[in-house]
Amino acid sequence: MLNIRYELTKNPKQLPGKDDPLKFGTIFTDHMFIMNYETGKGWFDPRVVPYQPVVLDPSAMVFHYGQEVFEGLKAYKTEDGRTLLFRPDMNAKRENNSNRRLCIPEIPEEDFVQAVKAVVKTDEKWIPTKPGTSLYIRPFIIATDPFLGVRPSDTYQFIIILSPVGAYYPEGLNPVKIWIEDDYVRAVRGGIGETKTGGNYVASMAAQMKAHEEGYSQVLWLDGVERKYIEEVGAMNIFFKINGKVLTPKLNGSILPGITRNTCLELCREWGYPVEERKISVDELYEASVNGSMEEVWGTGTAAVISPVGHLRFEDKVMQIKDGGIGELSQKLYDTVTGIQLGKIKDTRGWTVEVK
Ligand code: PLP
Ligand code: COI
Predict the structure, then answer these.
(1) 114 is in which domain, residue-wise?
(2) From the CA of 257, which ligand is nearest?
(3) Is residue 14 domain-shared with residue 136, that is, in the same domain?
């Protein structure tokens, strides 16, 4: 259990207006959480402080070798005024998995969740209530040793910042167009693909720029070895409904194990759909699109929620998904997941955690 100290701001910012579109990731709240680490001492001085710049030595290791991890989750306001988190224990576990791979000290799961609750409670009034909005929570850890040389740092900072957000994609619930990348790769098995670390995202940017130039909003990655099998999208996992079956790529070490992915798999199984987590080749998708058995495609992610895909392109092959609208199962998943997150649907699985 952390003994958190509080230093509250004397200059609170103005809250966004009710009709502010809350462009994703642009507005930050009044406070942040910080905790330090030193080898031999462990994590210490957990505190909620006014949102402020982080001052680091220019030789801090994070700037040079990318030793950092991050997470993403959201807080939601229910109609009766409660504040809910969705499966924060899964973020705590995933962060520790990333930490182990990147030689960063772990944080006890209960401390991670306590820290998230503490800062969210402090800035509770920033949680927006308009449909489709929420408070995005970004925990991250950075290596801070002032040292030029490749080895794990001996000092770190764990920080949590908060951002009231609307939809991640400007398309909202309208289907997105996705480019299947055939040249660049994002990750390979044995690398860092299954961790949430900046390196995976910077590796994706050149392809994303290329996709944007072609009029596509996101990149769908193929495996880095055979360049044949579907992996995931830049900021979400991917699902297909083909011939009544729900398919998603199996976790193989190079894909991020998404919490929304896990949630959708559990729901689809519970609803009686045949579900397969396996290798899916781009050829199989093209064939399903040509023979009419491709029924729905959607992405899943904390930021993206359930995001319908209307159009996929691989080299010169274009796959138009049905009529380009949101599919029946995608809509049901969206309604159920957001319904549970917002406390409108009874949570029978212990997925929501109230911030009191
Ligand atoms: N894949 C990548 C690369 C992501 O950045 C994200 C977002 O966190 C996801 C998948 C979806 O994961 P989650 O559902 O846990 O947000
Ligand atoms: C998330 O869904 O939490 C993400 O990390 C996506 C993105 C903002 C990088």
Answers:
(1) 5-165
(2) 1
(3) yes
